[in-house]
């Protein structure tokens, strides 16, 4: 599913920094400058009694990069996010102008100043890519775009890159498709430094690969450097693919199954979305948290699940008046028991 916008970040040396708060961040509505000396800058603290709730949970959202990739950081802070996703360029073209060096530096600086760790930032790959395509021209263009995307991650000081695995278009087998995807990843890994390619689970629509955990495992098995591959679990996609998160104990049993088939050590991120469609519908229809078929109890279990500590949990929900990203993040933190 396509989300609104895009942005990026990087880490740098620890030193004295001046952090400029955005007006939304304090009650007075004025800009406050704060000096932090000698230690790594901390992320903005949440207020009042919720300050420590969910301290190991890194909930955030997909944010825009319009107007400059570095602005993603401020947008994330403005909605109370502790993690974020962003696109690394236009979703419409195979060939994109190179990343502006000054913009990349600003992005890295913004991340450092606001205490964002690269492992909590998950760039989302272009929707044009199909690294499993049976069509040679599309496969080659996808492979080149993957190399370009991983290069952008490096330039931004990031460590993860989220990819929709691909689709067989019905003309090759699922295994052949997995083979092609792994081939594209292996080649891209050879050409780029240590970015981890994070495969997103799909909803099993059409000929897409990665709806079943076994298909993700099939790709991982074929990746040469398995320290450089991971998985991002999208709750809407999992539910639409038939994994029932909505029943009592559903979150635990789906994670157990993921652990058995793929391995929890590969789990690098979550996309938090409720689902408009029913269990096993194979439709990629995101819904706001608590307004879909998955429901609040499952999200309560997710934000209280210790196995999901310290990984980015990113909203890609449509939002509705009064219940946009900021309010949905607040709601999720309010569900944390401690
Ligand atoms: Zn989706
Ligand atoms: Zn996605």
UniProtKB/TrEMBL annotation:
Region annotation Disordered: where it falls in the sequence: 1-55
Alphabetical UniProt keywords: DNA damage, DNA repair, Hydrolase, Metal-binding, Zinc
Cofactor requirement: Zn(2+)
SUPFAM superfamilies reported for this sequence: Xylose isomerase-like
SMART domains named among the record's database cross-references: AP2Ec
Biased amino acid composition, Basic and acidic residues: 22-31, 39-48
Keyword presence, DNA damage: yes
GO cellular-component term (any): mitochondrion
Keyword Glycoprotein carried by entry: no
Cross-referenced InterPro entries: AP_endonuc_2, AP_endonuc_F2_Zn_BS, Xyl_isomerase-like_sf, Xyl_isomerase-like_TIM-brl
A Pfam family annotated for this UniProt entry: AP_endonuc_2
Family, per entry: Belongs to the AP endonuclease 2 family.
Protein name: Xylose isomerase-like TIM barrel domain-containing protein
Organism (species): Conger conger (Conger eel)
């Amino acid at each position: 599913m396509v989300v609104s916008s895009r942005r990026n970040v990087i880490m740098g040396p620890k030193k004295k920094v001046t952090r400029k708060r955005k007006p939304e961040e304090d009650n007075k509505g004025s800009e406050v400058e704060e000096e932090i000396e000698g230690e790594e800058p901390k992320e903005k603290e949440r207020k009042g009694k919720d300050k420590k709730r969910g301290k190991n949970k890194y909930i955030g959202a997909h944010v825009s990069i319009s107007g400059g990739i570095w602005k993603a950081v401020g947008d994330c802070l403005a909605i109370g996010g502790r993690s974020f996703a962003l696109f690394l360029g236009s979703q419409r073209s195979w060939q994109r102008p190179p990343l502006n060096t000054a913009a990349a530096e600003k992005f890295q600086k913004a991340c450092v100043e606001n205490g964002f760790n690269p492992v909590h930032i998950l760039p989302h790959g272009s929707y044009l890519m199909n690294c499993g395509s049976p069509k040679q021209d599309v496969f080659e263009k996808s492979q080149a775009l993957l190399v370009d995307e991983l290069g952008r991650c490096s330039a931004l000081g990031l460590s993860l890159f989220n990819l929709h695995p691909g689709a067989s278009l019905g003309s090759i087998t699922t295994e052949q498709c997995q083979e092609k995807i792994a081939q594209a990843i292996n080649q891209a890994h050879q050409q780029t430094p240590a970015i981890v390619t994070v495969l997103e689970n799909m909803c099993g629509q059409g000929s897409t690969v990665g709806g079943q955990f076994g298909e993700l495992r099939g790709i991982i098995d074929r990746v040469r450097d398995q320290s450089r591959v991971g998985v991002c679990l999208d709750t809407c996609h999992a539910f639409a693919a038939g994994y029932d998160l909505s029943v009592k104990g559903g979150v635990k049993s789906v994670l157990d199954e993921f652990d058995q088939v793929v391995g929890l050590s590969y789990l690098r991120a979550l996309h938090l979305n409720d689902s408009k469609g029913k269990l096993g519908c194979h439709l990629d229809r995101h819904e706001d948290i608590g307004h879909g078929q998955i429901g609040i109890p499952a999200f309560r279990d997710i934000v209280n699940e210790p196995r999901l500590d310290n990984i980015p949990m990113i909203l890609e929900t449509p939002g509705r008046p009064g219940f946009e990203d900021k309010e949905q993040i607040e709601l999720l933190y309010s569900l944390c028991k401690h």
